[in-house]
Design goal:
By secondary structure, this protein is α/β, with parallel strands linked by helices. The chain is built from 31 helices and 31 strands. Strands 6-5-18-17-16-7 form a six-stranded mixed beta sheet. Bound molecules: ligand MGD (2 copies) and molybdenum atom.
Length: 771
Amino acid sequence: MSKCNGKTDFIGKASKAAGGWGALKSSGKQILQSGAALTNVRTMLKANQPNGFDCPGCAWGDPEHGSSFEFCENGVKAVAWEATGRRTTPKFFATHTVSELRGWTDYDLEHTGRLTHPMRYNTQTDQYEAIDWDEAFAEIGATLAALDSAHRAEFYTSGRASNEAAFLYQLFVRAYGTNNFPDCSNMCHEASGVALKQSIGVGKGTVLLEDFEKADAIFVVGQNPGTNHPRMLADLRRAAERGAHIVVLNPVRERGLERFADPQNKLEMITGGSEAIASDYLQPRLGGDLAAFRGMSKAVFAVDDAALARGEKSVLDHAFLSKHTVEFAAYRAAVEATSWEAIEDQSGLMRAQLENAAQIYLRSRNVITTWAMGITQHRHSVITIREITNFMMLRGHIGREGAGLCPVRGHSNVQGDRTVGINEKPSQAFLDALEREFDFEVPRVEGHNVLGAIGAMLDGSAKVFIGLGGNFARATPDSPVIAKALSGLDLTVHVATKLNHSHLLPGKKSYILPCLGRTEIDMNSKGVAQIVTVEDSMSMVHGSGGINQPASKLLRSEIAIVAGIANATLGAKPVNWLELADDYDLIRDHIERVLPDFYDFNKRVRVPRGFHLRNSAAEREWKTPSGKATFWTGAMPEAVEHQQARGVAGHSVLQTFRSHDQYNTTIYGMDDRYRGVYGERQVVFVNPADMAEIGVEAGDRADIIGQFDDGIERVAENFRFVPYDIPRGCVAGYYPEMNVLVPLVSFGDESYTPTSKSVIVTFRKKTKLAA
Ligand SMILES: Nc1nc2c(c(=O)[nH]1)N[C@H]1C(S)=C(S)[C@@H](COP(=O)(O)OP(=O)(O)OC[C@H]3O[C@@H](n4cnc5c(=O)[nH]c(N)nc54)[C@H](O)[C@@H]3O)O[C@H]1N2
Ligand SMILES: Nc1nc2c(c(=O)[nH]1)N[C@H]1C(S)=C(S)[C@@H](COP(=O)(O)OP(=O)(O)OC[C@H]3O[C@@H](n4cnc5c(=O)[nH]c(N)nc54)[C@H](O)[C@@H]3O)O[C@H]1N2
Ligand SMILES: [Mo]
């Protein structure tokens, strides 16, 4: 069981740079703890190599050149986590009831190790018991076939699934008859997809990794790459060394962004030196980014006006604006109509700071803006991303070398899963292509996203949940409501590598189907090792083949499991599922015929580094209704959450973010080294002045109470205050422990993404004794 030693320093004391020896020491510990040291070192060396596997850690791109492997502490953790020597066997399940396991922490559950056998829940004993694969498939297939409507089943995907697994899965689900594809990206970068599609006609980023070598300024917004995309830091560091400006917008001072020692650079590690990364670190209030970007645009327009008044050239890229965009004049008017007072108040930044950032933008020939969850998990995320795009368009920073938009994706293949059809609102063109290739009538009605699926479970219309990976119960908001929703179903099926809380909320019938991980050899019936493919944040598609022996002889690939369920439900229609599962080249042939951008797929995927999927916006072709890149011309919201909270005594806005020792709901350890927190996760980061106002000191504890106006009481119990460099009125704590506070009914406009970064809360102080 995890222990809590409660040792925490104020961030000021944790002064060493991110990365460096700390990173090596921490990952060494990880390898030793995982109990498979030798394999792990070999495994680590093969990550993101042409003849190795794609690192399951994150979706950052891989360099063409550089050291033999890109060292990444959190990549090592992800790999060690999968290649652990521990096993969760039928014997384990025989000694613990499901009710008992529900009392365990996320950390303890996953630390029981890799699942080894397909398991079926026994309602009599409240235990999982081993079952044959064929029996499991037959029972699942029979329940699915017996449903009166395919729309009563929900098919969840987590973003680790390969292109091949995801393509086969969507084919099965559509042949079965529904577009119900709740997907982890609904909780993640959905707003980026929606906004970019509206602005530039394609819901993906426009840059390549190489562009980072040519950028003069990189705006890193709402993102903590030191923890979540560590390999990105190396690219930022190289850029900083060249003299590029790194401008950070983040309410929290994240150490990885301030200074970084590169574990690949031996000299620097020996001398203990470190490179300053951010040249400018702006700390907006939570949800203040739309206002911040509007302020920067306003400053740019002011400089432009002054230049024109002096008879000088405009500082804007008018060639780009007139040839490639619409609505520019209306945007300029909207910005002019927005006052500096409103901008300062909503952003929490001062005019001078924003003018300074605008100067950096104006001095730079090539600008890249990157962002992640700090931007996408708010009510106003879609218009915020549209405003970021507006700002970038002023000087034509889209669709040319060294410049562009870069939403940095989370899961290693979340972008690819969307590309190959995991989408509750698929385009008609995609459905037409499926119909041509497979000759069946595809369902045309829109399916459920995550919130839609939860709604259907709660109102009783959904009967089945099938999860291709992930941890639906812990990743979603309002945890107790979700627990009830899942356990009320007729059938729940989880394809997984490790035990998690979602598996412990069985419906009437419930199965855990254990699968191979990325790092493991996937042998077909002819003894040929198969490879899968993934797509990174820069739209590079590349192959991935495991090198470790499977954790158990009984494991099957995700593809084989999907094929098994499909075959048991539909028979060999519209394809011979089992044949495809025995030769992934055949699946890729189908993908190529449905999605022509994958031409020569089987050939190109065997080239080191793979290939780039065409991005129309990066070529300045705009697939919007007007045929041009489109400015968003709306007004800023009246008041975002921090402004609403400010009016009421004791109210703050909470964001839920990741520690340095976790991968989403997978908790690797109890430390958050860069933030100076050790041995516990029940903490809340608060500005020292706010703490004084609440009347608490470092180490005091409180219950955190959600303040959402729907009559539901939401409480996160017994969290410890940690003074932190974060704006007043804004507080932070860890996901998934804080998910009990995120209301299901609070989501982004147009994105339906839970507002995990802006929840209004109050504190109920504990007496010292209770601590
Ligand atoms: N090691 C590791 N790697 C991961 C993951 C992991 O859990 N562990 N998860 C993967 C996944 S699925 C994803 S989506 C990504 C997530 O990558 P990130 O988006 O970096 O993840 P978070 O920890 O949620 O961090 C959000 C950051 O945004 C800041 N922020 C919060 N609200 C605001 C705001 O209103 N404005 C601004 N400007 N900033 C704000 C926070 O202070 C924090 O630094 O990482 C991926 N990679
Ligand atoms: N409050 C709050 N909530 C959030 C977020 C937040 O920032 N704050 N972030 C959101 C985001 S960005 C995301 S992406 C979601 C993540 O939501 P999910 O993707 O659903 O969650 P994960 O924690 O990544 O899933 C972990 C589980 O995946 C399984 N697994 C691991 N590897 C494999 C594999 O190779 N194959 C299969 N089949 N299974 C595997 C293991 O059983 C493990 O327990 O959470 C969202 N929820
Ligand atoms: Mo994510």
